[in-house]
Write a structure and sequence with these properties.
mainly alpha, 1% strand, 60% helix
Length: 491
């Protein structure tokens, strides 16, 4: 019996729980100590690096688990429903509580800045979440970056920064004096891009009269602006500038260029007719007149040829259909077209090649070159021969080519002229070396044999004998020449 009592005494004395005594300390002092112990215990929790410890709730379930989150949500919803008006609870028998967003944060994860379980968010994720307000202060840019936009840069520094590709605002230059200094610094920097950028700024912020007056004494900047306006197509602004500068010829040329934007042929013809009276130079006035006359001729020729082609009355149009319209074509193209389809027409016809040559004063070399190409394409070798044949005042005929017979041979060969036709004009090439090269290249054997005979070059003629076919007329001709005893050979 005494043994059992001794055991009970030992148990009660060894327990951490004590019975109440009047010797306990004051309540306030004890509460202070308990608070201190709680803070220390919280510090131990925060500073604990042991991630393997699992925290459980009062019900024994792990904190952050799915079941714990469901119970937390259910308890929160129940408490919110209990706080509502009782009348609403009675009137709604099938009332459903609004779902409350489950909390996905733990105390340790928010203090430590890392997630405990897979359902927890880290501190960085929580701060970057759109649903969570970010109370962290925004980091400002360095002051040096703001200087690119709003810095108090001088005109020279601004130009230097623009040359280096930095973004600089020009809006701070508000006075006329500052803008002109900026323009002068840009011109002094010899950078066309910077000059153009400053001119665009001045064009936008200054009145035209002031801008034109200042540019009149700054020729470099003026040239840049004129080029910029032409490239961007600001025709009205350009004409105003040229009129202010009293450049009447440039104003006329700028107005003349507008015909390129007119697609209708009749409207373009009327526009060109009005351009004739503009203050051009004498040479330019003649060109404008020729342009108007050419377009007028093309309209007449196009109308007649379209009618002939549709009616099928011309064999030439049936054999060689037109591939494009003649309208708005250059003079040389119009001449080629006329030589191709209207070569035999009388001079009085608008479509006659000779009429075009006389009206527009086409040089003989250009006319022969164009007509030769057109007639050779049709393989009209008789017309080619007539084109290159001239008569003197005594009535003697002679072959003459203003473009040179070597070019005549090249044009004929490109159009697959027969060897007999080629040989006739290869013989007319004056330079011996050129004649031999052309004759050898295009296999004009008779020309090669005759040239070597005239040169009295027995060795070259003998060597060329091996290049012709055996038993051919060319080989017999070479043998006949080599056996001629009257020829004094040089070798």
């Amino acid at each position: 019996m005494s043994r059992v009592r001794a055991d009970e005494e030992e148990y009660w004395h060894s327990s951490k729980f004590r019975a109440f005594t009047f010797d306990d300390e004051d309540d306030e002092l004890s509460q202070l100590k308990e608070s201190k112990r709680a803070v220390n215990s919280l510090r131990d929790i925060v500073d604990d690096d042991d991630d393997d410890l699992e925290r459980v709730s009062w019900s024994g379930e792990p904190v952050g688990s799915i079941s714990w989150s469901i119970k937390e949500t259910a308890s929160g919803s129940t408490s919110s429903l209990d706080g509502r008006d009782s009348s609403l609870q009675k009137g709604s028998s099938s009332y459903a509580a609004l779902p409350k967003q489950a909390s996905s944060y733990s105390l340790s994860s928010l203090f430590k800045g890392r997630n405990k379980l897979s359902s927890f968010q880290s501190l960085s994720d929580a701060l970057t979440d759109t649903g969570v307000k970010n109370y962290a202060p925004e980091l400002r840019r360095p002051k040096a970056e703001y200087k690119d936009y709003s810095g108090d840069w001088s005109p020279r520094d601004t130009v230097r920064r623009m040359q280096r590709g930095k973004v600089c605002s020009l809006e701070r230059f508000r006075s006329l004096q500052d803008k002109l200094v900026l323009l002068d610094e840009a011109v002094a920097g010899h950078d066309g891009n910077v000059i153009t950028a400053v001119l665009i700024f001045l064009k936008r912020t200054l009145r035209r009269e002031i801008l034109f007056r200042e540019l009149e004494v700054r020729q470099v900047a003026l040239c840049h602006l004129i080029h910029f306006l032409r490239e961007t197509g600001e025709q009205k602004f350009l004409l105003d500038l040229l009129r202010f500068l009293d450049r009447t010829e440039e104003v006329a040329l700028s107005q003349y260029r507008e015909h390129l934007n007119i697609q209708d042929v009749e409207k373009r013809r009327e526009f060109l007719k009005g351009c004739i009276g503009l203050p051009f130079s004498a040479e330019d006035t003649s060109h404008i007149q020729d342009h108007y006359t050419l377009l007028e001729r093309q309209i007449i020729i196009e109308a007649n040829d379209r009618h002939l082609e549709m009616a099928g009355q011309s064999e030439l149009f049936r054999k060689y259909p037109r591939k494009a319209s003649i309208l708005n074509m250059p003079l040389v193209t119009t001449l080629f077209y006329s030589c191709f389809y209207h070569y035999t027409e009388a001079e009085g016809m608008f479509s006659s090649p000779t009429n075009l040559k006389k009206t527009f004063k086409i040089p003989d070399k250009q006319y022969v070159l164009t007509a030769l190409a057109a007639r050779a394409k049709l393989r009209a070798w008789g017309d080619v021969d007539a084109l290159l044949t001239t008569k003197n005042w005594l009535g003697y005929t002679k072959k003459k080519a203003p473009i040179g017979f070597h070019r005549v041979v090249e044009i004929l060969q490109r159009n697959n002229a027969p060897v007999q036709v080629l040989q006739e004009y290869v013989r007319l090439v004056e330079d011996v070396e050129t004649r031999l090269n052309l004759a050898t290249k295009y296999k004009c054997h008779d020309v090669v044999i005759e040239t070597y005979r005239d040169l009295k070059d027995r060795m070259q003629l003998t060597a060329y004998k091996g290049k012709v076919e055996r038993g051919s007329a060319e080989e017999e001709k070479i043998n006949s020449i080599l056996s001629n005893m009257q020829i004094r050979w040089k070798n």
